[in-house]
From TrEMBL:
One of its GO terms (cellular component) is nucleus. ARM repeats lie at residues 179-214, 221-264. It comes from Cyprinus carpio (Common carp). This is Plakophilin 1. Residues 74-99, 375-395 are annotated as: Disordered. Pfam families: Arm (PF00514). PROSITE patterns: ARM_REPEAT.
């Protein structure tokens, strides 16, 4: 995406502001933070040796937010997200029980010394000092262990690689150079669930923030192996690792088409739908919340792909239906701010609403004009701003699909029930990424000058009373959320019949923003340009209301920043 240039504060022509949530790494925690969480987990349950820390990707964002395609997009976001796990083996998994092996002793030492004693004692003081408790082998030996016929050697090698790639970023490329990635992928094809978990966790670490390793996994036919194991395995821990691995892979643009084509249908059918929509046929298919969380993070990343990929995703059976159902269920439970799954789901809807009218024109053929009439105007003064030349025109539309009682698929993206859901989230969620995703989805639906955008704006402001939940976001301390909310208000201000209501709720907030503009903000912040345009539009529409809200501080701020802008032009 190219950065939008600052528009002149005198411009009256507004651009079609749309948004898309991109993968982001902004919210990812450091290695030491993740280790400290693992220590706490071990203290709670010494017998559970699986590292369960989860790193939001963006957005999702989102995600995570560009164009906004937030981001969230991750995170999300927007990427993006990674559960780095240190899985370990049990001696019962050894195929050769008649004689002790070096690998058995190494694995036992690794489990007992590293994961229990040192994680509790050494890592609490200094995460990096735990390396001395690892088996005394080299990375090359660990990679060689992966091809050994003894499962204990394979487990030892995979566990060592998993740990090293978690604590030392540089080892990721070394594992790639030594050929460790294809060897780990081969372990996904074994019959041992512990090998599955450990190999998947090691691959997950290798793919985390390493673009070349993501592509190497694909080059070695790793995606096919991952999906085959995900389809055939019933082990929850394995599912956690595989979906986390897919989440990390999904932030690579080159892999998105393949993942959308092959992984999305499987993830939707086996995870998203069963977890979101409980029916008599799937009540026994218990999906772990972390698996659903990882899956929605992966889908969130995929949803900010190209136009063709977005069209494919919108047509995925039950995907959009399940996402909306899950959000609504969490709202009914009073839990709009769960771990991050609601945020991921809203970011996906945000991205799938991007350029919706252009990419799915068949959805909007039934929009028709019911009535176009000027509003009554009692002031007939020739020189009044409310003279007949500037009378506000009210246009009403008929669009049965928007009011459909049982929407399906793409219809959910613009249905009245979804607008109500966004409105409810904006009034109840405390998570800024979720609020931004809601604003971004509405921003996309109101972006053009078409009948659809007008209808969406009218519905949200007049039927749903949406301004009270949007206006406070205009002065948010989160610049990304503020920018998205301001763009949404800018889009809706194009509808002349709404300007009277907007002047009362929006003008004070816009005035506050422009009263506190600094010279640095005016040089780079497109939010200021949008705010100036909104203020100009509302002042022309409602001069009497606007006059009462103009303060000396506002005038001084605008004057100073106009001088800054003039200097920039010269």
């Amino acid at each position: 995406m190219t950065v939008e240039p600052i528009r002149s504060t005198l411009a009256t022509v507004s651009t079609d502001d749309t948004s898309l949530v991109l993968p982001t790494d902004k919210m990812q925690r450091t290695g030491q933070q993740r280790v400290l969480e693992q220590v706490k987990s071990i203290k709670r349950n010494k017998s559970k040796m699986v590292k369960k820390d989860s790193i939001p990707s963006p957005t999702c964002k989102c995600a995570v937010y560009m164009h906004t395609c937030v981001s969230y997009n991750n995170n999300n976001n927007n990427n993006k997200n990674n559960n780095n796990n240190k899985n370990n083996n049990n001696n019962n998994n050894n195929n050769n029980n008649n004689k002790p092996s070096l690998a058995r002793m190494l694995v036992w030492q690794y489990l007992k010394t590293c994961f229990i004693s040192k994680f509790k004692q050494v890592f609490m003081a200094n995460a990096s000092s735990a390396e001395g408790s690892l088996p005394n082998i080299t990375l090359q030996e660990a990679v060689e262990f992966l091809s050994n016929s003894d499962i204990s050697y394979q487990l030892c090698g995979a566990s060592f690689i998993q740990h090293q790639t978690f604590t030392e970023e540089s080892t990721k490329q070394e594992v790639w150079r030594l050929g460790g990635i294809p060897a780990l992928i081969q372990l996904l094809k074994s019959d041992n669930s512990q090998l599955h978990q450990t190999a998947a966790a090691a691959l997950r670490n290798l793919a985390f923030k390493d673009h070349s390793n993501k592509l190497e996994v694909d080059h070695c036919e790793g995606i096919e192996a991952i999906l085959t194991l995900l389809r055939n395995s019933n082990d929850t821990e394995t599912h956690k690792q595989l979906t986390g691995l897919l989440w990390n892979l999904s932030s690579a643009d080159k892999l998105k088409p393949e993942l959308i084509r092959n992984a999305l249908p499987l993830l939707t059918e086996t995870i998203v739908v069963p977890y979101s929509v409980w029916t008599d046929s799937n009540t026994n298919k218990l999906i772990d919340p972390e698996v659903f969380y990882n899956t929605t993070g992966c889908v969130r990343n995929l949803s900010c792909a190209s136009e063709d990929e977005r069209i494919t995703m919108r047509s995925c059976p039950q995907l959009i239906d399940s996402l909306v159902t899950y959000i609504q269920t969490q709202m009914d439970r009073g839990e709009p701010d769960d771990k991050q799954s609601v945020e991921n789901c809203v970011c996906i809807l945000h991205n799938l609403s991007y350029q919706l009218e252009t990419e799915a024109p068949e959805q909007f053929k039934q929009i028709s004009v019911l009535d176009t009439r000027p509003k009554e105007n009692n002031n007939k003064s020739l020189f009044s701003p409310k003279s007949s030349k500037t009378q506000k025109v009210r246009t009403d539309f008929k669009f049965p699909a928007m009011e459909k009682e049982k929407p399906e698929g793409v219809n959910w993206l613009y249905n009245q029930k979804t607008l109500q859901l966004y409105r409810s989230l904006l009034g109840s969620s405390q998570k800024e990424a979720t609020l931004e995703a809601c604003c971004g989805a509405l921003q996309n639906l109101t972006a053009s000058k078409s009948s659809l955008s007008t209808l969406m704006s009218q519905s949200f402001i007049e039927k749903l009373n949406g301004l009270p939940v949007i206006s406070p976001l205009l002065i948010s301390g989160n610049s990304s959320l503020q920018k998205t909310a301001m763009s949404l208000v800018g889009n809706m201000s194009r509808v002349s019949s709404l300007r009277g209501a907007m002047a009362k709720d929006v003008f004070p907030m816009v005035s506050s923003v422009l009263s506190n503009v600094t010279s640095n903000m005016i040089k780079s912040d497109s939010t200021i340009a949008t705010a100036c345009r909104v203020m100009q539009t509302l002042m022309l529409a409602e001069p009497e209301t606007s006059k009462k809200m103009i303060s000396p501080n506002l005038v001084e701020s605008l004057t100073e920043n106009s001088c800054v802008k003039e200097k920039m032009w010269h």
